[in-house]
Amino acid sequence: RIIDRLTATLGFAVYPTVVSNSFLAVCAHLRQGDWASIVPHSFFHVLGKLPDLVAIDLVDPVHSEVIGLVISDRMPRAPMAAAFLGAATECDIEQGFAEL
Fold first, then answer.
1. Distance between the two ends of the chain, CA-based, in angstroms?
2. Mean pLDDT of 14-30
3. 3-class DSSP state of 83
4. 83 and 34 assigned to the same domain
5. Which of 5, 27, 40, 42 has the fewest CB atoms within 10 Å, i.e. is most exposed?
6. Opening angle at CA 41, ends 36 and 42, nearest 5
7. Counting beta carbons within 10 angstroms of the beta carbon of residue 94, is it exposed (0 to 12), middle (13 to 18) or buried (19 or more)?
8. Are residues 49 and 81 in the same domain?
9. Total domain count for the chain?
10. Same domain, residue pair 45 and 16
């Protein structure tokens, strides 16, 4: 829906050959060659810099999505929730992505 909305503002539509809700599946197709994809910049945080994958910023139109994190307000917190919350509040995510 996000990509459909963005391309509609530019006056065209895209018709994907493969659709997946798994970025690992997307990566598998990209690594096979002859494929292209539109993915968030955080995709490269997981995969790192690979010689056969190129990141091109979406500059016209520039787009971002706000995401949220919901954690129950109860103690003790689940260990994974506590660790994730600690990491999310202590790191500079934007700077980390900018360095990719």
1. 26
2. 85
3. helix
4. no
5. 5
6. 115
7. exposed
8. no
9. 2
10. yes
Show the domain range for 54: 1-62
Q: What span, in angstroms and rounded, lies between the C-alpha atoms of 63 and 38?
A: 12
| Residue matched to tokens 């503002």 | 9
Q: Are residues 72 and 48 in the same domain?
A: no
Residues 84 and 58 in one domain: no
Per-residue pLDDT of 30-89, as tens digits, reads 878 788 888 877 777 777 777 777 778 878 888 877 878 788 888 999 999 999 888 888
Residue entry with tokens 């700077």: 95
| Dihedral angle sign, alpha carbons of residues 91, 93, 95, 96 | positive
The reply to whether 36 and 73 lie within a common domain is: no
Whether this model's pTM surpasses 0.85: no
